[in-house]
């Protein structure tokens, strides 16, 4: 019994042993594999009082969002149920040793044909912030896109004040007609493509367009809190100015890279670009509403729609 007095009891020893193993584990064991399934299918959607059948992921518009942590593995099965060939690009992800998961059709893979599927399997290495995914063939990305949100590793904080809430804000376009017809006509004639009918914020054109008062994105906020807006420009071709009336925002991250924070009243976001901004809401402003708007920036003669998309804060 002498020996027993110097050793801790067996259950405690087991605990101590497992705890020391836990401390020795490399951090990648906390990474997980996240499974998603994207069924590419047609869905009827109405905007600007025009209904059309369009290509979507899982029949959703707006889109499913992907949420992962830095270091996680993503396993996404894409099944094509439509007549178009399709592939999905994981925009901005550094595909280290997984180039075949990048997604551009005819570049890193053949497109997924009707009735076929493809599994995108990759690990997010050294990136955190906001990225996005979109169809990468012809103009299908005008309806097939969504956010890819990468949180820091478990237990790692943001290098800025922790936001009270995080909200994706995605800029896009709405065509009353089939965008595939627009691009194929442009390719045949060599002219600029016919313009879309509205810009959208989170799939909604907003109250400045005809017939769209109800189709306005509204962000309800509490006073005196910090919100992080995850901005994504998913518009096909247009640079957009974005601002929120009577507010400035603090830019903290661009294309999933932290930046030295700076304040601005207006920002320019190019197609494909993403940025995280902090928005501090006013301390006390009962029932106030503020416009959040985006409009295009263009100096050339190309075809574009010089209109304004509005959402409400
Ligand atoms: Cu892309």
Overall description:
With 313 residues, the chain is mainly β. It has helices spanning 2-6, 10-24, 179-189; strands at residues 33-47, 50-57, 66-69, 73-80, 88-91, 117-123, 129-135, 145-151, 165-174, 198-201, 226-233, 239-244, 249-254, 257-264, 266-269, 274-280, 291-297, 309-312. Mean pLDDT is 90; it is low at 1-5. It has 2 domains: 29-151, Immunoglobulin-like (Sandwich), CATH 2.60.40; 165-312, Sandwich (Immunoglobulin-like). It is built from 3 helices and 18 strands. The chain has a 6-stranded mixed sheet with strand order 10-9-11-16-13-14, with no helix packed on it. The structure holds copper (II) ion.
**CATH topology label of the largest domain:** Immunoglobulin-like
Rounded mean pLDDT is 90
**Individual helix count:** 3
Q: Give the strand tally.
A: 18
Helix/strand structural class: mainly beta
Determine Rg (CA atoms, Å): 23 Å
N/C terminus separation: 72 Å
Entry summary:
With 313 residues, the protein is mainly beta. The chain has helices at 2-6, 10-24, 179-189; strands at residues 33-47, 50-57, 66-69, 73-80, 88-91, 117-123, 129-135, 145-151, 165-174, 198-201, 226-233, 239-244, 249-254, 257-264, 266-269, 274-280, 291-297, 309-312. The strands form four sheets. The chain has a six-stranded mixed sheet with strand order 10-9-11-16-13-14, with no helix packed on it.
């Amino acid at each position: 019994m002498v020996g027993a007095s110097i050793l801790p009891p067996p259950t405690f020893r087991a605990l101590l042993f497992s705890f020391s193993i836990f401390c020795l584990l490399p951090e990648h064991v906390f990474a997980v594999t996240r499974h998603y399934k994207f069924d590419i299918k047609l869905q009827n959607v109405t905007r600007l009082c025009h209904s059309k059948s369009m290509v979507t992921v899982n029949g959703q518009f707006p889109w499913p969002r992907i949420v992962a942590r830095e270091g996680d593995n993503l396993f996404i099965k894409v099944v094509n149920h439509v007549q178009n060939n399709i592939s999905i690009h994981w925009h901005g992800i550094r595909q280290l040793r997984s180039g075949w998961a990048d997604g551009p059709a005819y570049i890193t893979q053949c497109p997924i044909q009707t009735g076929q599927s493809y599994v995108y399997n990759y690990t997010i290495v050294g990136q955190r912030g906001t990225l996005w995914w979109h169809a990468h063939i012809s103009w299908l990305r005008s309806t097939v896109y969504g956010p890819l949100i990468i949180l820091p590793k478990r237990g790692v904080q943001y290098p800025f004040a922790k936001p009270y809430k995080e909200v994706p804000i995605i800029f896009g376009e709405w065509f009353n007609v089939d965008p595939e017809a627009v691009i194929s006509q442009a390719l045949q004639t060599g002219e600029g493509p016919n313009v879309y009918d509205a810009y959208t914020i989170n799939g909604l054109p907003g109250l400045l367009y005809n017939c769209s008062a109800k189709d306005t994105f509204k962000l309800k906020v509490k006073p005196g809190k910090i919100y992080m807006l995850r901005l994504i420009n998913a518009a096909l071709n247009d640079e957009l100015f974005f601002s929120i009336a009577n507010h400035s925002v603090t830019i903290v991250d661009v294309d999933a890279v932290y930046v030295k924070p700076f304040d601005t009243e207006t920002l320019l976001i190019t197609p494909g670009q993403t940025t995280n901004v902090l928005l501090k809401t006013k301390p006390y402003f009962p029932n106030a509403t503020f416009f959040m708007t985006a409009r295009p920036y263009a100096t050339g003669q190309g075809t574009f729609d010089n209109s304004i998309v509005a959402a409400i804060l």
